[in-house]
Write a structure and sequence with these properties.
The complex is a heterodimer. The longest helix of chain A has 16 residues. Chain A folds into two domains: 219 residues, P-loop containing nucleotide triphosphate hydrolases (Rossmann fold), CATH 3.40.50; 72 residues, Alpha-Beta Plaits, CATH 3.30.70.3190. In chain A, helix 3 packs across helix 4 and helix 4 packs across helix 5. Helices cover 37% and strands 30% of the residues of chain A. In chain B, helix 6 packs antiparallel against helix 11. The chains are: A alpha/beta, B mainly alpha. At the A-B interface, helix 2 and helix 3 of A face helix 1, helix 5 and helix 11 of B.
Chain lengths: 314, 256
């Protein structure tokens, strides 16, 4: 559906994106992840033909962004960063304009607008002026215009930024629903969002791809050790000593918190020593209140990848 | 074509939804009314004197004494207000980021520019039509020749079209509407008075600046002469600045 080959963009002499190669299949929801200034937005702008690439190619549904930009744009629904909208227009009027601009026939504009209004839950605000709407509704209007004419590919640049938590959940649900029959690329620097909505992540940093895989693969691959969280009712110092001395434990760190001692124990990835550890603690007569294994979160994966990249360079 | 129609309609809506249009329109009509009143009042004064002196009567002519000065004055008011109408066109879209929306819809850039250009022109036609009331009133009381009036209005409209194209280009250059207005106004004024250098420069320069001068090309229209040279001057002027705007949008994309 989307094929990107050696895509490069220079701003003057500054490389914003260098040598990006990836592809996105039909019906996939892919997260584009990276810190601010990593080149996410630039890449998306090239995919939507807003910026021409310095070199390399990108194809959407077989159409080349440099050669057939109009054809490419017909395949796309795009929600730009910060959701620019015509503030002085009513929701209805703006969507009718967007439909016409996208080439929806005169007779079908009304029904097309009605459909996206329903999909995005805008029924109550359709007669209101966009400038007076809340941020969450504006975001939905942005999504609604992207959905007009039912494009096979959706490109969403930071779709949930600046929303309150309930709105974030709503928009994510909406994206998940949309992703059932469409190809979606969404960019974000919020990691849980990507792990919740996307099947695959592309992590980029400083204009380069540092990792590209499913969320679960990435976490298992990068897990060099296993971490478990323990709450033990017993004399803290002794417990700590026992934990650190136990076979297979790499490191034991006391954690802050109320009540009995909390510890974070890092152990070898290969060998599961949880049963041994539990037995030892119980035999000592201490109360083992909690033993919880901690998954490596996407945040940690991300931090690892981004810092690794920096480490190899310097 | 659909893209053009969509942009054209939206742009008209933006004009009528913004207070700028109403303020600018009111000022234009008030000033035009004032110019009309003074010319007519002067005309009636001269007419009274001419009634006592039959020889002076030959010079008294409604078209010469009311319509022509009125058209000249309106052209200067247009010079002042057109940059105010065009400053918004692209600068605002660049500032708010909506240009990204517009240029990622399946519309050609030229359709976007033409939609904006023609919508502004239609707004100016509406304003000019408002001043026609004065002349219709005048024709009820005096003998007005409509030919030169219509050709004069045509000239004014063509000149306004040229103004709009330059204003559009100025608006493409910046995200700041005030800068767009000032650049537009300054450039237009330059084209207006460029002929002045002719009086101190050599004959070759004089011919060039005369050709470039907006004023020179407006003159024949208000006399009732529609010359293809003048027509082509304004058409080419518009085409040139729309072309420049198009190229500028492109070059900006490449620089990012």
């Amino acid at each position: 559906m989307i094929e990107v080959e050696n895509l490069t963009k220079y701003y003057g002499f500054l490389p914003a994106v260098s040598d990006l190669t990836f592809s996105v299949g039909q019906g996939e929801v892919v997260g584009f992840l990276g810190p601010n200034g990593a080149g996410k937005t630039t890449t998306l702008k090239m995919l939507t033909c807003f910026l021409p690439p310095t070199s390399g190619t990108a194809r959407v549904n077989g159409w080349d962004v440099s050669r057939d930009p109009l054809k490419v744009r017909e395949q796309l629904g795009y929600l730009p960063e910060n959701v620019p909208l015509y503030q002085e227009m009513t929701v209805e009027r703006f969507l009718a304009f967007a439909a016409q601009a996208k080439g929806v026939g005169k007779g079908e504009i009304k029904s097309a607008v009605g459909r996206v209004v329903e999909d995005c839950g805008l029924e109550q605000v359709q007669k209101r002026i966009i400038g007076h709407l809340s941020k969450g509704y504006k975001q939905r209007v942005g999504l609604a215009q992207a959905l007009l004419k039912d494009p096979p590919v959706l490109i969403l640049d930071e779709p949930t930024i600046g929303l309150d938590p309930t709105q974030v959940v709503e928009i994510r649900d909406l994206i998940r629903t949309l992703g059932r029959e469409r190809t979606i690329i969404l960019s974000s620097h919020i990691l849980p969002e990507v792990s919740q909505t996307c099947q695959r992540v592309i992590i980029i940093n400083k204009g380069r791809i540092v990792a590209m895989d499913t969320v679960s693969n990435l976490t298992t691959q990068l897990q060099t050790s296993r971490k478990i969280h323990l709450i033990v009712d017993g004399p803290p110092e002794e417990v700590l000593k026992t934990l650190s001395g136990h076979q297979g434990v790499l490191e034991a760190v006391p954690q802050p918190g109320e009540g009995p001692g909390r510890f974070l124990v890092e152990m070898d990835k290969e060998k599961d020593i949880r049963p041994d550890l539990a037995r030892t603690l119980v035999e000592k007569g201490w109360g083992l209140l909690e033993l919880k294994s901690q998954e490596l979160s996407l945040e940690e994966v991300f931090m690892q990848l981004v810092t690794e990249e920096e480490g190899t360079r310097t | 074509m659909k893209g053009f129609r969509a942009v054209f309609k939206r742009e008209l809506y933006a004009f009528f939804a913004s207070p700028v249009f109403y303020v600018v329109g009111t000022i234009f009509l008030v000033l035009s009314g004032y110019f009309f009143y003074t010319s007519t009042a002067y005309f009636s004064l001269v007419s009274f004197q001419a009634a006592q002196n039959p020889y002076a009567g030959r010079e008294v002519n409604l078209n010469e004494m009311v319509v022509k000065p009125l058209l000249d004055d309106m052209s200067i008011v247009l010079l002042l207000i057109v940059p105010l109408l065009t400053m918004r066109l692209l600068a605002e879209e660049k500032k708010t980021g909506t240009i990204e929306l517009l240029l990622t819809y399946p519309i050609r850039d030229l359709e976007v520019l033409m939609g904006k250009y023609l919508a502004t022109l239609l707004v100016i036609i509406i304003l000019l039509a408002g001043t026609a009331v004065n002349l219709i009133l005048l024709s009820r009381f005096g003998s007005l020749e409509w030919g030169p009036v219509l050709s004069g209005y045509l000239g004014l409209l063509l000149m306004a079209a040229a103004f709009v194209s330059l204003g559009l280009f100025a608006s493409a250059l910046t995200q700041n509407q005030i800068i767009a207005a000032i650049v537009g106004f300054g450039a237009l004024l330059m084209f207006w008075i460029i002929g002045w250098i002719g009086s101190v420069a050599g004959p070759a320069v004089t011919r060039v600046v005369d050709y470039l001068s907006m004023l020179e090309h407006l003159e024949p229209f208000s006399k009732g002469v529609i010359d293809t040279r003048d027509l082509m001057y304004y058409v080419n002027f518009s085409a040139f600045f729309i072309f420049l705007s198009l190229r500028y949008l492109d070059s900006q994309k490449i620089r990012g």
